[in-house]
Amino acid sequence: MAWIMLVVAGLFEVLWAVAMKQSHGFTRLWPSVITLAGMIASFLLLSAAMRSIPLGTAYTIWTGIGTVGAFVAGIVLLGEQANALRVLAAVLIVAGLLLMKVAGD
């Protein structure tokens, strides 16, 4: 269950990052509200997952999901560039996440 909470926490991190971009510096109400709600949900789920997953593993996985998820969301939702080096960087992050999971078992 802790791993499910950690993955969902990472997905909420993606949500709040995208909403923060859409808030235009917290000048738009609903994206700002979604940002804050997403942050709270993400942190609560991360803290719950950390009850049984080591800090280094949980935090690395959480930030990795957020990083790669925000990268993909930027491309898909916001029309950001996807060039070979950026994609390679995302692939390396995912490889690091998988290695962290394997090393933690």
Automatic annotation (TrEMBL):
The chain crosses the membrane at residues 27-46, 58-78, 84-103. Signal peptide: none annotated. Its main location: membrane. Keywords: Cell membrane, Membrane, Transmembrane, Transmembrane helix, Transport. Pfam families: Multi_Drug_Res. The keyword Transmembrane helix applies. It is found in: Cell membrane. It is a multi-pass membrane protein. The keyword Acetylation does not apply. InterPro entries: EmrE-like, Small_drug/metabolite_transptr, Small_multidrug_res. NCBIfam families: PRK11431.1 (NF008512). Belongs to the drug/metabolite transporter (DMT) superfamily. Small multidrug resistance (SMR) (TC 2.A.7.1) family. Gdx/SugE subfamily. PANTHER family: GUANIDINIUM EXPORTER (PTHR30561:SF0), SMR FAMILY PROTON-DEPENDENT DRUG EFFLUX TRANSPORTER SUGE (PTHR30561). This is Guanidinium exporter.
